[in-house]
Design a protein that fits this description.
Helix content: 25-40%
Oligomer: single chain
Order of helices and strands: EHEEHE
Strand order of the largest sheet: 2-3-1-4
Shape: globular
Amino acid sequence: MVQKVYDVKGMTCDHCVQAVSSELNGLPGVENVQVDLPSGKVTVTSEQPLDAAAVAAAVDEAGYELAGGGGR
């Protein structure tokens, strides 16, 4: 399992959390998504490393933006 933390800009409420979680959970191989709303940190656990462009596209589809374009 691989765990990566992303900074997502623009989330302000539970609806934001649900939108981002739903899109990221739809990516192949994603096992778990945890969102910390106050910090904007999103922790994604997956079977293997995720494509950064796919993660950015999923966050964008939810209506938000990855800070710095990637995770750590």
